Automatic annotation (TrEMBL):
Record-given protein name: Nucleoside hydrolase
InterPro entries in the cross-refs: Inosine/uridine_hydrolase_dom, IUNH, Ribo_hydro-like
Pfam families reported for this sequence: IU_nuc_hydro
GO MF term set: hydrolase activity
Domain Inosine/uridine-preferring nucleoside hydrolase: 5-300
Keyword DNA-binding belongs to the record: no
Keywords recorded for this protein, A-Z: Glycosidase, Hydrolase
Species annotation: Georgenia wutianyii
Gene3D superfamilies registered for this protein in UniProt: Ribonucleoside hydrolase-like
Length: 311
């Protein structure tokens, strides 16, 4: 079954793989790519999204730039993982993919409202600012989308702070609004994505394709591997790829239901995704939480998408 996707991202090495999967998997209809400040400034990540599409020959997909900062806080970025460009490693081409004049929130609203109800999946893989803005712009969005599958959060520990994952703490007010809205939410958090380490077995399969796009992916992964090695990881976690995979393949992950909310006022825990599997808070379930990954299945679909795009 084909899934119609709006990918809201902040490329980012793992976002780049998410774009390739969404563009190259035959089960995906990539309606639009929207960008948000996160891994780098919004100008840089927007250029990166357009550059990835250019390298991969992705045409006919609308790309729109979104929020340059969180709803109420100061912006944070992650050059320690993604470099000064946000996509260090390969030489990025001058993008040939045009930029839509509309803002991301407007494009998200218009795209969803123009489609049949229940047919569009929102897949945010960066801070949730654009999604919260779109919801504020058009509250009916919550009843029109098929669901929101986000990369962010964790039910154990964070990565930006001991309690908080980067995408959530980058705009916790936006994240809180997304979890509180009456739409189906799937959280693909660190507990799941740290099972998706792009090791040399995966990279060898990509290299074996022998295409220019495969070479581009290998250069991305080489830089990303070095970034993660400095933090003690044997291979980089390709977080954002997992969110797209979750939409396309119901068997690539297993899930548990929970009530999830975002801590906004904790001295040490701001940005924490408080995840209640046991109903201890007495609140109704609002989130499907990814807990285990079929990694071989993820690599199979990713390599196939890169091969299908050619290049």
């Amino acid at each position: 079954m084909t899934r119609s996707i709006i990918l809201d991202c902040d490329p980012g090495h793992d976002d780049a793989l998410a774009i390739l999967l969404a563009a190259g998997d035959p089960r995906a209809e990539l309606l639009a790519i929207t960008t948000v400040a996160g891994n780098q400034t919004v100008e840089k990540v927007t250029r990166n999204a357009r550059a990835v599409c250019t390298v991969a020959g992705v045409e006919g997909v609308t790309v729109a730039q979104g929020a340059s900062r969180p709803l109420v806080r100061e912006a944070i970025i992650a050059p320690e993982y993604h470099g000064d460009s946000g996509l260090d490693g390969p030489d990025l081409p001058e993008p040939t993919v045009p930029l839509d004049p509309r803002g991301a929130a407007e494009l998200i609203v218009r795209t969803v409202m123009d489609r049949e109800p229940g047919t569009v999946d929102l897949v945010p893989t960066g801070p949730l600012t654009n999604i919260a803005l779109a919801l504020a712009l058009e509250p009916r969005l919550a009843e029109r989308v098929r669901g929101v599958t986000l990369m962010g959060g964790a039910y154990t520990r964070g990565n930006r702070t001991p309690a908080a994952e980067f995408n959530i703490i980058a705009d916790p007010e936006a994240a809180a609004a997304v979890f509180a809205a009456p739409w189906p939410v799937t959280m693909v958090g660190l507990d799941l994505t740290h099972q998706a380490l792009a090791d040399d077995a995966f990279r060898s399969r990509v290299r074996a394709l022998g295409t220019p796009l495969a070479g581009f992916v290998e250069e991305l992964m080489e830089f990303f591997t070095q970034s993660y090695a400095r933090r003690g990881f044997p291979a980089p976690a390709v977080h954002d790829l997992c969110a797209v995979a979750a939409v396309l393949d119901p068997d690539v992950m297993t899930y548990r239901d929970a009530f999830v909310t975002v801590e906004l006022t904790g001295t040490w825990t701001t940005g924490m995704t408080v995840t209640d599997f046991e109903g201890l808070l007495g609140r109704p379930v609002n989130t499907r939480v990814a807990v285990s990954l079929d990694r071989d299945r993820l690599w199979d679909m990713t390599v196939a998408a890169i091969e299908r795009l050619g290049g």
